[in-house]
Amino acid sequence: MCHVIVTCRSMLWTLLSIVVAFAELIAFMSADWLIGKAKPSSAEEVDNRTGGSQEPYHPTLGIYGRCTRISHMQLSRRDTLCGPYAETFSEIASGFWQATAIFLAMGIMILCAVAFVSVFTMCVQSIMKKSIFNVCGLLQGIAGLFLILVFIIYPTGWGCQKGINYCGLCASAYKLGDCSLGWAFYTAIGGTVLTFICAVFSAQAEIATSSDKVQEEIEEGKNLICLL
């Protein structure tokens, strides 16, 4: 008989697992890992001749994507174009960034799988006498290790040609040059920290769903068990 067991700790772990997976996925897809040095647009140059002023824009660069501004003849129209600069995996700007993409993708796949499974832990708490919470926590720990490798490898690619184009000649491995780190980088770091928190908290979720109070309610014949 299937027992639906919902506790505060198990629900919190499930929600955090989903949030972590989405955070890392959004960061991976974003082009805002590096914010490039300010570049004036052609529209700005025209305005300067007439005494006007336009704020310079900052192009952004991701692992495989980028955002840049395209200026049109009309001064009031400037479009920001975002998209992948690499059509194939081999076109990613640096071998280090290719490795970054691999490890980040592996970590995200594990986190997404755990997030999917976590939804069903309300009904199924073990498989083949193994706690799903403990197995998922172990997988989240492995995903966290992959994500740590991302932050070790990624900065070594800052000195690639595309990095220099965006960040200036001073850019090199672990040196940003004229660039700064974008929100996607910090989102990925925050997601990594939460990944390890989830891995640890999975044990608490397992304890909550197998507590004496839960067992008492199961013995009373209840199929839906909600504990605060």
UniProtKB/TrEMBL annotation:
Keyword Membrane among record annotations: yes
Keyword terms of this UniProt record: Fertilization, Membrane, Transmembrane, Transmembrane helix
Location(s) in or outside the cell: Membrane
Transmembrane segments: 12-35, 96-120, 132-154, 183-203
Keyword Zinc-finger: no
Topology term for the membrane: Multi-pass membrane protein
GO cellular component: membrane
GO biological process: single fertilization
Predominant location category: membrane
A Pfam family recorded for this sequence: L_HMGIC_fpl
InterPro entries hit by this protein: LHFPL
Family named by the database record: Belongs to the LHFP family.
Name by which UniProt lists this protein: LHPL2 protein
Lineage: Eukaryota, Metazoa, Chordata, Craniata, Vertebrata
